[in-house]
Write a structure and sequence with these properties.
This protein is an alpha+beta fold. It has 4 domains: 61 residues, no CATH class; 62 residues, no CATH class; 142 residues, Immunoglobulin-like; 109 residues, Mu homology domain, subdomain B (Immunoglobulin-like, Sandwich). It is built from 4 helices and 21 strands. Helix 2 packs across helix 3. The chain starts with a strand and ends with a strand.
C-alpha cells in the first residue's frame, strides 16, 4: 500500500501562524485581519490511498486493515488460542488416561495406589515407584496397547478339592494296645478348576501334606495328573502336575492315596460285653459317637458273628431292631442316624451246644466278633491338598477343600 500526501497552496500575503494556533498582532485591526485569514487560508492535507493495495473482492469488513497494524496481532492471537485448546485437550486426555490406568492397576494387581500432590509441579499426581514404572509404559499408549498389557497378566486359577476316604480299622480288646486301632485309609481326591483364561485351564502342582509330615503314598490319575521330577539343590523333588481340560466343568478324580497308621482316637467308640452262665450266653454292644466330631454319623450297620459252638436255633434278640441270618450266622442291626455325642446299645442271647455247659469263662472259641459300618461328612486322616503355581505356567492359584466324606468299617475282635 502506498500513501501520497498533498498540500493546498496558500497566498503569499497570508500571515504566518504559530504552532500554538494563536495569532498575535500589535494592533486590533491587524488582529482581525489575521483571524479572517486564518479561517480562509487554513492548510489542509489529503490522504490518497492506492486502490491496488486494497482487496476489493473481500466482503469481510473485519479484515480491513490498510496499515497492516493487526496482521501480526491477529495471527499471534489465533496461534495462542489453538495452542491453548491443544493444551486443554492434552491435559484432559492425560487425566482420563491416568484415572483409567490407576483403576486398572488397583483392580488387576490388587494394590492400592497412593496419590500424592507435588506442590512444586503444579498439582501433578504421583504414585509409588513400582506402580509409576508400570504406568509410564501405559501412559504413552492407546487403548489397544493397554488391553494388550492387561491380557499379559497371569490368569487367576481357583481349584476346589473333594476328599473321600474308605477306612478299615481293627481294634483289639485282649492285648496290651487296648483302645488303639490299626487303621488303613484308601483315599480319593477330586478337583474342579475355574480359570479366568477363556481358552484353557492352566496346569498346577498338587501338593499333599499331613500333620506328622510323613510321605504320602499318592498315585496320580494318568488322565489328568502326571508325576514330575525336578532336581533342586542336588536333590530330586517329586511333584504331581494336574492339567484339566477347559471343557470339563465338574469334579474329576486326580489321584488316590493310601495311609496306614495306628490311631488312638477314633470318631466312634465300640464296646462289647459277653456274660456266660453255664450254657447261657448274653451279648451286649454299645456304640457312642464322640461329641468332638464335626458331623453326625449316618447309615449304621452293626453285625455280630455267632461262633460254631453256639446253637443257631437258640439265638434271640433282646434289644434293638435286629435280624439273625442262620446261613451267615450273624445278627445285624441297622440305624439310620446317630447324632454326635449320643450312643445306643443292642443285645442278644444264645445257648451253647450239648456237652459244653460246664464253665463260666469265655475263651478264644467263644469270641463274638463285631463289625460296624457308617458314613460321615468328615475325614479320618489329617491329609490336606494344596494347589500351587507350576513352573513355566504363571498363574495366581488359590485352592480349598469344599467337601470331606468317609465310610468306615470298624472291627472289634
Amino acid at each position: 500500500m502506498t500513501m501520497t500526501m498533498a498540500r493546498t497552496p496558500t497566498s503569499s500575503s497570508a500571515s504566518t501562524v504559530p504552532s500554538s494556533g494563536v495569532a498575535r498582532a500589535s494592533s486590533a485591526s491587524t488582529t482581525v485581519d489575521i483571524i479572517e485569514g486564518f479561517s480562509s487560508n487554513f492548510v489542509t492535507e489529503e490522504v490518497i490511498l492506492d486502490e491496488s493495495a486494497l482487496n476489493m473482492n473481500s466482503t469481510d469488513e473485519d479484515d480491513f486493515d490498510p496499515f497492516n497494524i493487526g496482521v501480526a496481532a491477529s495471527t499471534k492471537k489465533k496461534d495462542d488460542n489453538t495452542n491453548k485448546k491443544k493444551q486443554i485437550f492434552t491435559t484432559r486426555e492425560k487425566k482420563k488416561m491416568t484415572t483409567s490406568t490407576r483403576t486398572l492397576i488397583a483392580s488387576n494387581k490388587g494394590q492400592s495406589v497412593n496419590k500424592k500432590t507435588d506442590s512444586s509441579s503444579g498439582g501433578t499426581d504421583t504414585t509409588s515407584v513400582a506402580d509409576n514404572n508400570w504406568m509410564t509404559q501405559l501412559s504413552g499408549s492407546d487403548k489397544k496397547s493397554i488391553s494388550v498389557s492387561l491380557s499379559a497378566l497371569p490368569p487367576r486359577l481357583v481349584v476346589k478339592f473333594k476328599i473321600h476316604e474308605e477306612v478299615s480299622s481293627l481294634a483289639h480288646l485282649s492285648d496290651d494296645n487296648e483302645g488303639i486301632s490299626n487303621v488303613t485309609i484308601e483315599g480319593t481326591v477330586l478337583a474342579q478348576v475355574v480359570s479366568s483364561d477363556a481358552l484353557k485351564n492352566i496346569p498346577f502342582y498338587l501338593i499333599p501334606s499331613t500333620d506328622n509330615q510323613k510321605v504320602v503314598n499318592f498315585t496320580p490319575n494318568d488322565t489328568y495328573t502326571k508325576k514330575y521330577i525336578s532336581e533342586a539343590k542336588s536333590e530330586k523333588l517329586e511333584r504331581n502336575i494336574v492339567r484339566i481340560p477347559k471343557d470339563i466343568l465338574g469334579f474329576v478324580t486326580v489321584g488316590k492315596y493310601r495311609i496306614s497308621q495306628s490311631m488312638e482316637h477314633m470318631p466312634l467308640l465300640l464296646e462289647q460285653k459277653v456274660v456266660r452262665s453255664k450254657s447261657k450266653i448274653q451279648i451286649a454292644i454299645q456304640v457312642r459317637s464322640k461329641l468332638s466330631n464335626p458331623d453326625d454319623l449316618f447309615k449304621f450297620s452293626l453285625v455280630v458273628f455267632i461262633p460254631e459252638r453256639v446253637n443257631g436255633d437258640s439265638v434271640s434278640i433282646l434289644s434293638g431292631d435286629g435280624e439273625f441270618d442262620q446261613w451267615k450266622r450273624c445278627i445285624t442291626w441297622e440305624i439310620e442316624h446317630l447324632p454326635k455325642g449320643q450312643s445306643f446299645m443292642v443285645s442278644a442271647k444264645c445257648l451253647l451246644l450239648d456237652g459244653t455247659s460246664e464253665g463260666t469263662s469265655v475263651d478264644e472259641s467263644l469270641k463274638f466278633p463285631v463289625m460296624l459300618r457308617c458314613i460321615s461328612n468328615d475325614q479320618i486322616s489329617s491329609i490336606r491338598f494344596k494347589a500351587i503355581e507350576a513352573n513355566g505356567h504363571p498363574a495366581t492359584v488359590s485352592s480349598s477343600n469344599v467337601e470331606k466324606t468317609y465310610r468306615i468299617v470298624h472291627r472289634l475282635n
